[in-house]
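DOMAIN: structural biology
WANTED: fold as C-alpha cells
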Amino acid sequence: MATQTTASCTGSTLLQPISEIINLPLDQVNFVACQLFALLMAVWFRIYLHPSKSSPFVRHVVATLLGFYLALFCFGWYSLHFLVQSGISYGVMIFAGLENMHKYCFIVTLGYLILCQITRVYVFDYGMYSADFTGPMMVITQKITSMAFEIHDGLSKRETQLSPNQKYLAIRRMPSLLEYLSYNCNFMGILAGPTCSYNDYKAFIEGTSYQPRHQDNANGKENGKWKQSEPSPQKAVVSKLCTCALSLGVYLSLCRVLPVEYVNNDEFLSSAPVYTQIVYLYLAMLALRPKYYFVWTLADAINNAAGFGFNGYTLDGTPRWDLISNLRIVDIELATSFKLFLDNWNIQTSLWLKRVCYERCPINPTAATFLLSALWHGVYPGYYMTFVTGIVVTMAARAVRHNIRPYFLVSDTHKRVYDAMTWAATQVAISYTVVPFVLLAVGPSLKFYRSWYFCLHFLCLLLAMALPVKKRRPLKQQDDSQVEHSSTDNNCNQKVKSS
C-alpha cells in the first residue's frame, strides 16, 4: 500500500495524498511527477532559453539548478551523493596525470556507486523496487567515466591511435566545473538519463547540434534545404508520449496478472506441462518490459522537447530525433538473436560498456563487459547470476550464427524459417536469463533454474564448445567502411551493425 511505503521515500511528501488515492508508492509518484514537470520545463527551456536568446553560461546554470531541484524533491538529502560523486571524480580528473586519469576516475566513480548500492541494499531496504537515489548515480557514473576516457583520448593520444568514433568523441579541452555539473546533473536526464556524449551535450547547449556534422550522408544534399533550418521536435515528442501512455497502460494491466514470481509456484511447477511453463515465462517477461519502455521513452521525450536528440534526416528529409534513444521497441520484440536484443535494449548503456570496456579490454572483452555490467547494476546476487548466464548464452548464440545460419541463406523461405526459429529461441533464452535479475535473491533464482534442470546452461555450454567461432579482428584492423562515424556510433541506425 502507498501508506506503507511512505517511510521508504526519502524525498518530498507533498504528493502523499495523491499517492494514497491512486495506491502507488510515494517515491514512484514523485518520480513521475518530476518527469512530467521536467517535460514542461524542457518546452520552456527550448523556447525561452534558446541558444539564439541565451548564452551557454545561462543555459548551463538553469539546466543544472533545475536538475538539483528535481533531485532534492525525489531523494531529499540523499541527492548530495550526486554532488559528492561528481566532485571527487572531477578532482581526480584535475589532479591526476593524463596518462592514468581515466583509470583512477573509473575506479573511484564506480567504487563510490557500489559503496552506495551496498549501503542501500544491505542496510536499508533489501529487495525493494523503489525510485532510489542509486538509480541516477548509475547514469552519472556512465557520464563521468565516459568523459574521463574521452578527455584521455583527446589530450593524451595522437589522432592515429584513435578509431574514427573515438576521434569524434574525444574532448580537446578540460570542461569547466559548471559544464561538468551541467552535463552530469541537468534536469533533462538526472532522474532517468539517458547517457549521452559530452560533445553532443555541449553542442546542444551552444546551439550547434543542427549543423551538418550529424547529417553526413543522411540525404545526399550537402547544401540541401533540410540542413538550413532547425527542425521542430513536436511530432517526435507527441509520438513518444503516446508510446509512454500505451506502455504504462499495458504494464498496469498485466503486471499483476502475470507476475514473474509465479514461475516458482510449487503447484504450477508440479501441474503445468513444460510448454505451458515456457509460454508463461515468455508472457511474464513480456508484461514486465513496458515499465522500462515507459521510463526510457519519457526520458527521451523530455530531452527532445528541450531540443536535444536531433540525429540528422532520413533520405526523404524527415528529421530524426533518436540521437540518445535508449531502446527500439519493435526491434526488441522481433529480435532474432541474443545480440540483436541487447543492441536494442538500453542502447546508451550498451554503448557505454562498448566504449569503456569492450573496445579497450585486451583479455576476453565479452566476459569483462558482462562483469562490468553486473557491477554497475548493483549488488543483488540475481544480477550476477543473470550476467554470468548471459556470457554463456552470448557465446552459444555467436557459435550458432557462425555455423548454422549460412545453411539457411540459400533462399528466402529457408531464411524465414530460420528467423522464426531463432526468434522463439531468443525470446526463451532472454526470459530464462533475466529471471534472476527480477527475483534478485539466490534461493528463488536457483529454484527456478533447478526446475528447468539448468537445461539452457548445459545446452549453451555444449554449443559454445562444439561449434568453432572465428576470432574477431582487432578494431583498428577492420575496414573503415565497417566503423561507425556518427556521434552516437550509429546507435539509432535501424539496420543491424555488422559484427
In short: Confidence is low (pLDDT under 50) at residues 1-7, 213-228, 474-499. The CA atoms of residues 82 and 137 lie 6 Å apart. The radius of gyration is 23 Å.
